Amino acid sequence: MYLNNYAKVIVNIGVTVEKGDLIKINFSPEHLPLVREISKEAYKSGAQFVSLDLRDSEIEKDRVLYLEDEFLGVFPNSVVENELNYAKSGYSTITIVAPTFSDESSDMVDRASKINKAKSIAMSPCRTYGMENNNKWVVVNAPTKEWALQVFPDHTETEAIELLWKHIFEASKSNVPNPVSAWKQHDEILKRIAKKLNNYQFSALRYVSDKTNLTVYLVKNHVWLGGSETTKDGKEFMSNIPVEEVWTMPNKYHVNGYVTITKPVILAGLTVQDLKLFFENGKVTRIEPKHQVVLDLLQTDDGAGMLGEVALVSANSSIAKTEVTFKSTLFDENAACHIALGQAYIDNISNGESKTVEELMKLGMNQSAVHEDIMIGDSTMSVYGLLNREEILIMENGVWKI
């Protein structure tokens, strides 16, 4: 029953399927039972066609292992054109993800980083098109054996998968009698918080904890968002399920201080944690300790080492209360305040669509081929909003105070 409820949430809250909609589902082989439920619910809601895109982690690992060196920095333009064709044809996208992991001692990390960089750069037009909300889209999690055993290593494979499903069903509200109604109520809560923050129009945010001291200026006429979003033609969707955050656009030129990663980030299959990033005038100037996969990310392009998003999340969120480290950005970013290196969202600035790229860059919007969320919050963090030389307490010990 819960699997069908989850599908209903994805279809009716995630991409709000309407009559005639075109749907594309990106998934792994282990997710096929969920894909079938999603497809069924999509057609029941009036979808015209559901297109399937299989992405297998084992095949991707074989690509890293055996790809000829001369192709490591190459990504086929035909794939980019195909993705853009789906987007420009109006397809709503459902992406079912699960993190993949590599051996820390593997000499394949450099190869994986090169492959990921080439793909990120090549696919940046598709990513930008999506982040501009031309179409409805949602990213959700579903278990794989590999991921489940990473989260629950002391359990059998079957037990680990069942436990992970349990948490996903709870976080997505799929375990309640009317999950769609529950999501609409949750959406209203996040929108109320975003409205309060928008009314302030803070000039900057200051993050202070046992591990972090960071000041981030916000772009002028920034917009806080929370919960559901709308496409350019006014159709509602929920880009992440679950979602506990409210987020806005930093001024990429004015970020100073340091942050400490409080939850693992998976890059090129490697787990990065307990890392400090130091910012000066917007750019990451050093990291401690040095970590090659992070340095590779920062060198993707000029915007990769600058901020494109700041997001506030209560340390009492439903996901945080589980006290589970999921090693999945989608889950862990909804358990802690976070920042994102790379591309910014255009709808986080008022009338952004009417401005030229040059105007947006001048205002402080970041552009990059990457968008990587980094969790920095915990129960010791306080967040202040700067307004007319006054500091207003937004969060104390990770909990909302506004």
Give a written overview of the molecule.
- The chain is α+β, with helices and mostly antiparallel strands and 402 residues long.
- The protein folds into 2 domains: 2-171, Thermophilic metalloprotease (M29) (Thermophilic metalloprotease-like); 179-400, no CATH class.
- The protein is built from 12 helices and 22 strands.
- A hairpin with a 5-residue loop joins strand 8 and strand 9.
- The protein is globular and about 55 Å long.
- The two termini are 38 Å apart.
How are the elements arranged and paired?
Blueprint (H helix, E strand, L loop, with lengths): L1 H13 L7 E6 L4 H13 L4 E6 L2 H10 L10 H12 L3 E6 L11 H14 L1 H8 L5 E5 L3 H7 L5 H15 L7 H22 L3 E5 L4 E6 L6 E2 L2 E2 L5 E2 L2 E2 L4 E3 L1 E11 L4 E3 L2 E3 L3 E5 L2 E6 L3 H7 L8 E6 L16 H4 L5 E5 L14 H7 L7 E5 L6 E6 L2 E7 L2 E2 L2
Parallel strand pairs: 1-2, 1-3, 3-4, 4-10
Antiparallel strand pairs: 5-6, 5-20, 6-12, 7-11, 8-9, 11-17, 12-15, 13-14, 15-16, 17-18, 18-19, 20-21, 21-22
Helix pairs in contact: 1-2, 1-9, 4-6, 5-10, 7-8
